[in-house]
Amino acid sequence: MLKSVGTVAVARDMARISEALGEDGLNFWGYSYGTILGATFAAIKPNLVRRMVLDGVSDSESYFNDLIQWGRDGMQNTNKTLEGFLSTCIEAGPNFCTMAVSPIGTNETQTVATLRRRLESLYSQLAQEPLIVPDSRTAGSGFLKASDVQYLIFSVLYDPTVWRTLGDLLVQVERGNGVNAYNALYNTAITSVSSGE
Predict the structure, then answer these.
(1) Which residues are in coiled coils (predicted)?
(2) In angstroms, rounded to a whole number, what is the distance separating the alpha carbons of residues 186 and 157?
């Protein structure tokens, strides 16, 4: 069974799907791990590649030689990207990033360091007492936990076009409203969010 699992097996499946659909080749856009998948596909089925974009290329040699180390190496820049989100928020200002506004009841100037402290405080608060989500359009009722918010942040760091929405979601969660963040966890594309107020 293990011969049917993994990157090479998925690349072969992609070729079979393309052929079964009667396509004359594969158009593919891959980023991060997708660049490894795309490169593998191109290596085993070069005649089926029509157009291919490999964006944010991952280290395929490391992936195939030591998967565990590849995973560790891939996480190295996550904190830098989070810092990029936070600094972009500060630079954009309150009109474009709601996190750049001081929390209710404070007049503290917002900086990358203060935003990071706010996130840490939010994680601590949610770890002690998750937010109850009475009803969401995508997943019904449930709880929004610290790990959910961390996953949500991690999942959108790839896409700066939704960072503004991420800022809105985080402020809503800070204010005790987790509905939109909970919806976003179960939605495959975060594009915009209502105020939820």
Answers:
(1) none
(2) 17
Of 28, 49, 74, the position where a domain reaches its end is 74
Structural domain of 117: 78-185
Angstrom CA distances, 142 to 7, 92, 170, stand at 35, 33, 18
Total-model pTM: 0.70
Tell me which residue has tokens 């900086």: 111
Residue 26 β-bridge partners: 49
Per-residue pLDDT tens digits for 124-136? 999 999 999 987 7
Tell me how far apart the alpha carbons of residues 89 and 14 are, in angstroms, rounded to a whole number: 39
Residues 6 or more apart whose CB falls under 8 angstroms from that of 109 comprise 102
Contacts of 186 (CB under 8 A, 6+ apart): 136, 138, 139
pLDDT tens readout for residues 136-176: 777 778 899 999 999 999 988 888 999 999 999 999 999 99
Task: State which of 43, 59, 74 marks the end of a domain.
Answer: 74
